TrEMBL record:
This is Transglutaminase family protein. It comes from the Bacteria. SUPFAM superfamilies: Cysteine proteinases. The lineage of its organism: Bacteria, Bacillati, Bacillota, Bacilli, Bacillales. It holds the Pfam family Transglut_core. It comes from Guptibacillus hwajinpoensis.
Protein backbone atom coordinates (compact mmCIF):
# COMPACT_ATOMS: atom_id res chain seq x y z
CA UNK A 1 0.00 0.00 0.00
CA UNK A 2 1.29 3.46 -0.91
CA UNK A 3 0.45 6.64 1.00
CA UNK A 4 1.06 10.37 1.00
CA UNK A 5 1.26 11.82 4.50
CA UNK A 6 1.12 15.53 5.27
CA UNK A 7 1.79 16.77 8.79
CA UNK A 8 1.62 20.43 9.76
CA UNK A 9 2.86 21.63 13.14
CA UNK A 10 2.11 25.25 14.01
CA UNK A 11 3.53 27.03 17.06
CA UNK A 12 2.04 30.35 18.15
CA UNK A 13 3.87 32.38 20.78
CA UNK A 14 2.33 34.75 23.31
CA UNK A 15 5.23 37.16 22.80
CA UNK A 16 7.73 37.47 19.93
CA UNK A 17 10.49 34.86 20.17
CA UNK A 18 13.98 36.25 19.78
CA UNK A 19 15.66 32.94 18.94
CA UNK A 20 14.97 29.21 19.04
CA UNK A 21 16.63 25.85 18.54
CA UNK A 22 14.33 23.07 17.34
CA UNK A 23 14.57 19.35 16.69
CA UNK A 24 12.11 16.93 15.11
CA UNK A 25 11.69 13.29 14.09
CA UNK A 26 9.10 13.26 11.31
CA UNK A 27 10.77 11.47 8.40
CA UNK A 28 9.34 7.93 8.05
CA UNK A 29 11.72 5.00 8.35
CA UNK A 30 13.15 3.40 5.22
CA UNK A 31 13.72 -0.34 5.68
CA UNK A 32 12.51 -3.77 4.59
CA UNK A 33 9.01 -3.11 5.94
CA UNK A 34 8.48 0.23 4.21
CA UNK A 35 10.00 2.24 1.37
CA UNK A 36 10.29 6.01 1.68
CA UNK A 37 9.86 7.29 -1.89
CA UNK A 38 9.84 11.02 -1.15
CA UNK A 39 10.13 13.37 1.80
CA UNK A 40 9.94 17.17 1.84
CA UNK A 41 10.13 19.73 4.65
CA UNK A 42 8.92 23.33 4.64
CA UNK A 43 9.76 25.61 7.58
CA UNK A 44 8.36 29.11 8.06
CA UNK A 45 10.25 31.34 8.89
CA UNK A 46 12.57 29.77 6.38
CA UNK A 47 15.43 27.75 7.86
CA UNK A 48 17.85 25.04 6.80
CA UNK A 49 17.78 21.72 8.67
CA UNK A 50 20.75 19.60 9.72
CA UNK A 51 20.10 15.86 9.86
CA UNK A 52 21.63 12.89 11.63
CA UNK A 53 20.65 9.33 12.53
CA UNK A 54 20.21 8.68 16.24
CA UNK A 55 21.21 5.61 18.27
CA UNK A 56 17.92 3.85 17.51
CA UNK A 57 18.16 4.37 13.74
CA UNK A 58 15.74 7.31 13.49
CA UNK A 59 16.38 10.37 11.33
CA UNK A 60 16.59 13.56 13.41
CA UNK A 61 16.52 17.10 11.99
CA UNK A 62 17.68 20.24 13.80
CA UNK A 63 17.28 23.87 12.81
CA UNK A 64 17.96 27.30 14.31
CA UNK A 65 15.98 30.54 14.11
CA UNK A 66 17.92 33.61 15.22
CA UNK A 67 15.50 36.32 14.03
CA UNK A 68 12.42 37.49 15.93
CA UNK A 69 9.22 35.57 15.14
CA UNK A 70 5.79 35.08 16.71
CA UNK A 71 4.82 31.84 15.01
CA UNK A 72 6.58 28.82 13.55
CA UNK A 73 5.28 26.25 11.07
CA UNK A 74 6.88 22.93 10.17
CA UNK A 75 5.22 21.00 7.35
CA UNK A 76 6.39 17.59 6.14
CA UNK A 77 5.09 15.67 3.13
CA UNK A 78 6.08 12.00 2.78
CA UNK A 79 5.35 9.33 0.20
CA UNK A 80 5.66 5.88 1.73
CA UNK A 81 5.02 2.34 0.49
CA UNK A 82 4.29 -0.34 3.09
CA UNK A 83 5.44 -3.95 2.71
CA UNK A 84 3.47 -5.78 5.43
CA UNK A 85 4.84 -8.93 7.01
CA UNK A 86 3.10 -12.12 5.90
CA UNK A 87 2.95 -13.64 9.35
CA UNK A 88 0.36 -15.84 11.04
CA UNK A 89 0.56 -14.82 14.70
CA UNK A 90 -1.60 -17.80 15.71
CA UNK A 91 1.15 -20.28 14.83
CA UNK A 92 3.01 -21.52 17.92
CA UNK A 93 6.69 -20.79 18.41
CA UNK A 94 8.97 -23.77 17.88
CA UNK A 95 10.92 -25.33 20.75
CA UNK A 96 14.07 -23.84 19.22
CA UNK A 97 12.56 -20.34 19.18
CA UNK A 98 11.47 -20.59 22.81
CA UNK A 99 14.86 -21.92 23.91
CA UNK A 100 16.61 -19.02 22.19
CA UNK A 101 14.12 -16.53 23.61
CA UNK A 102 15.11 -17.61 27.12
CA UNK A 103 18.84 -17.73 26.37
CA UNK A 104 21.28 -15.26 27.90
CA UNK A 105 22.63 -14.29 24.46
CA UNK A 106 19.16 -13.25 23.25
CA UNK A 107 18.45 -11.33 26.45
CA UNK A 108 21.75 -9.49 26.18
CA UNK A 109 21.15 -8.64 22.52
CA UNK A 110 17.82 -7.00 23.35
CA UNK A 111 18.49 -5.78 26.90
CA UNK A 112 17.63 -2.18 26.04
CA UNK A 113 14.11 -3.25 25.07
CA UNK A 114 13.57 -5.32 28.22
CA UNK A 115 14.51 -2.85 30.95
CA UNK A 116 12.17 -0.54 32.86
CA UNK A 117 12.11 3.15 31.94
CA UNK A 118 10.51 6.12 33.68
CA UNK A 119 7.43 5.67 31.51
CA UNK A 120 7.15 1.89 31.92
CA UNK A 121 7.91 1.26 35.61
CA UNK A 122 5.08 -0.54 37.44
CA UNK A 123 5.13 -2.57 40.66
CA UNK A 124 6.03 -6.17 39.83
CA UNK A 125 3.18 -7.40 42.02
CA UNK A 126 0.69 -5.29 40.06
CA UNK A 127 2.04 -6.51 36.71
CA UNK A 128 1.90 -10.09 37.92
CA UNK A 129 -1.76 -9.70 38.87
CA UNK A 130 -2.66 -7.98 35.60
CA UNK A 131 -1.08 -10.67 33.40
CA UNK A 132 -1.43 -13.89 35.45
CA UNK A 133 -4.51 -15.28 33.70
CA UNK A 134 -3.34 -14.27 30.21
CA UNK A 135 0.07 -15.83 30.85
CA UNK A 136 -1.43 -19.07 32.12
CA UNK A 137 -3.71 -19.41 29.08
CA UNK A 138 -1.14 -18.44 26.42
CA UNK A 139 0.56 -21.15 24.35
CA UNK A 140 3.79 -19.11 24.21
CA UNK A 141 5.19 -15.58 24.47
CA UNK A 142 3.91 -14.42 21.09
CA UNK A 143 0.43 -15.72 21.84
CA UNK A 144 0.59 -13.90 25.19
CA UNK A 145 1.50 -10.63 23.44
CA UNK A 146 -1.43 -10.97 21.03
CA UNK A 147 -3.83 -11.77 23.90
CA UNK A 148 -2.44 -8.85 25.91
CA UNK A 149 -3.03 -6.56 22.93
CA UNK A 150 -6.72 -7.50 23.02
CA UNK A 151 -6.89 -7.38 26.83
CA UNK A 152 -5.62 -3.79 27.01
CA UNK A 153 -8.02 -2.75 24.24
CA UNK A 154 -10.97 -4.27 26.10
CA UNK A 155 -10.14 -3.14 29.63
CA UNK A 156 -8.88 0.42 29.08
CA UNK A 157 -10.96 3.41 28.01
CA UNK A 158 -9.76 5.70 25.23
CA UNK A 159 -10.29 9.28 26.46
CA UNK A 160 -8.68 12.21 24.67
CA UNK A 161 -7.26 14.76 27.10
CA UNK A 162 -7.37 12.41 30.11
CA UNK A 163 -3.57 12.20 30.14
CA UNK A 164 -0.54 14.16 28.89
CA UNK A 165 2.89 13.39 27.46
CA UNK A 166 4.27 12.83 30.97
CA UNK A 167 1.71 10.17 31.97
CA UNK A 168 3.32 6.87 32.98
CA UNK A 169 2.13 3.31 32.45
CA UNK A 170 1.49 3.01 36.18
CA UNK A 171 -0.95 5.94 36.12
CA UNK A 172 -2.60 4.53 33.01
CA UNK A 173 -3.13 1.19 34.74
CA UNK A 174 -4.49 2.88 37.87
CA UNK A 175 -7.05 5.05 36.07
CA UNK A 176 -7.53 2.79 33.02
CA UNK A 177 -8.02 5.76 30.71
CA UNK A 178 -5.69 7.33 28.17
CA UNK A 179 -4.68 7.63 24.55
CA UNK A 180 -2.43 5.64 22.21
CA UNK A 181 0.80 6.70 23.93
CA UNK A 182 -0.54 5.43 27.26
CA UNK A 183 -1.86 2.15 25.82
CA UNK A 184 1.59 1.59 24.31
CA UNK A 185 3.58 2.34 27.47
CA UNK A 186 1.35 0.01 29.46
CA UNK A 187 1.78 -2.86 27.02
CA UNK A 188 5.54 -2.28 26.84
CA UNK A 189 5.77 -2.65 30.62
CA UNK A 190 3.69 -5.84 30.71
CA UNK A 191 5.51 -7.49 27.78
CA UNK A 192 8.91 -6.73 29.30
CA UNK A 193 7.72 -8.08 32.66
CA UNK A 194 7.13 -11.43 30.94
CA UNK A 195 10.57 -11.42 29.27
CA UNK A 196 9.51 -10.23 25.80
CA UNK A 197 11.64 -7.50 24.17
CA UNK A 198 9.34 -4.67 23.12
CA UNK A 199 9.92 -1.22 21.64
CA UNK A 200 7.84 1.94 21.20
CA UNK A 201 6.84 2.97 17.67
CA UNK A 202 5.63 6.38 16.56
CA UNK A 203 3.99 6.90 13.20
CA UNK A 204 0.74 7.31 11.36
CA UNK A 205 -2.27 5.09 10.83
CA UNK A 206 -4.48 5.07 7.75
CA UNK A 207 -8.11 4.77 8.71
CA UNK A 208 -10.17 5.43 5.60
CA UNK A 209 -13.84 6.34 5.56
CA UNK A 210 -15.46 3.31 7.17
CA UNK A 211 -12.96 2.22 9.80
CA UNK A 212 -13.37 2.39 13.57
CA UNK A 213 -9.63 2.76 14.11
CA UNK A 214 -8.45 5.52 16.43
CA UNK A 215 -5.49 7.77 15.79
CA UNK A 216 -5.67 9.37 12.33
CA UNK A 217 -5.97 13.00 13.48
CA UNK A 218 -2.38 13.15 14.76
CA UNK A 219 0.67 10.96 15.05
CA UNK A 220 -0.09 7.48 16.37
CA UNK A 221 1.77 5.10 18.69
CA UNK A 222 2.00 1.33 19.01
CA UNK A 223 4.71 -1.20 19.82
CA UNK A 224 6.76 -3.98 18.28
CA UNK A 225 7.77 -7.22 19.98
CA UNK A 226 10.73 -9.40 19.10
CA UNK A 227 10.92 -13.20 19.10
CA UNK A 228 13.79 -15.25 17.62
CA UNK A 229 13.62 -16.03 13.92
CA UNK A 230 11.02 -13.35 13.14
CA UNK A 231 11.13 -9.66 12.29
CA UNK A 232 9.81 -7.13 14.79
CA UNK A 233 6.04 -7.67 15.03
CA UNK A 234 3.83 -4.59 15.37
CA UNK A 235 0.92 -4.67 17.82
CA UNK A 236 -1.53 -1.78 18.27
CA UNK A 237 -3.39 -2.08 21.61
CA UNK A 238 -5.32 1.13 20.98
CA UNK A 239 -7.08 -0.64 18.10
CA UNK A 240 -6.55 -4.32 18.97
CA UNK A 241 -4.75 -4.68 15.64
CA UNK A 242 -1.68 -6.30 14.16
CA UNK A 243 0.33 -3.55 12.45
CA UNK A 244 0.30 -4.32 8.75
CA UNK A 245 -0.29 -2.15 5.68
CA UNK A 246 -2.23 0.56 7.55
CA UNK A 247 0.62 1.49 9.93
CA UNK A 248 3.35 3.89 8.76
CA UNK A 249 6.43 3.96 11.00
CA UNK A 250 8.41 7.14 11.79
CA UNK A 251 10.66 6.19 14.69
CA UNK A 252 11.37 3.50 17.28
CA UNK A 253 12.84 3.55 20.79
CA UNK A 254 12.43 2.35 24.36
CA UNK A 255 9.55 4.75 25.08
CA UNK A 256 8.16 8.15 24.08
CA UNK A 257 11.21 10.01 25.35
CA UNK A 258 13.44 8.34 22.74
CA UNK A 259 11.21 9.30 19.80
CA UNK A 260 9.71 12.64 20.81
CA UNK A 261 8.57 14.06 17.43
CA UNK A 262 9.04 17.75 18.28
CA UNK A 263 11.09 19.56 20.89
CA UNK A 264 13.02 22.77 21.21
CA UNK A 265 14.31 25.63 23.32
CA UNK A 266 13.37 29.27 22.77
CA UNK A 267 13.55 32.71 24.38
CA UNK A 268 10.07 34.20 24.66
CA UNK A 269 6.62 33.81 26.21
CA UNK A 270 4.13 30.94 26.40
CA UNK A 271 3.31 28.89 23.31
CA UNK A 272 0.51 26.81 21.83
CA UNK A 273 0.99 23.95 19.36
CA UNK A 274 -1.52 22.78 16.77
CA UNK A 275 -0.88 19.56 14.85
CA UNK A 276 -2.79 18.32 11.82
CA UNK A 277 -2.16 15.08 9.94
CA UNK A 278 -3.60 13.87 6.66
CA UNK A 279 -2.99 10.36 5.28
CA UNK A 280 -4.00 9.77 1.65
CA UNK A 281 -4.12 6.30 0.09
CA UNK A 282 -2.48 6.74 -3.32
CA UNK A 283 -3.76 3.36 -4.53
CA UNK A 284 -7.38 4.01 -3.73
CA UNK A 285 -9.59 3.92 -6.79
CA UNK A 286 -12.12 6.66 -7.34
CA UNK A 287 -15.39 5.36 -8.79
CA UNK A 288 -17.31 7.59 -11.11
Amino acid sequence: MKYEVTQTNTYEYELPVRQSINQFRLRPLHDVQQTLHDYRVRIQPNSKTYGHTDYWGNYVETFYLWGEHQDLEIETVSTVEIHPLSLDVTLPLTDQQRTELHSESFKQAYTEYMIETDYTTISKHVMEEETRELWANAQDELDFAVKLNEHIYNTMEYVSGATNVETTAEKMLTHRTGVCQDYTHLMLALCRHRGIPARYVSGYIYIGENSAYRGDAATHAWLEVKVPGLAWIGLDPTNNAIAREQHIRIAVGRDYRDISPLKGVYIGGAQTLNVSVGVKNLEERVSG
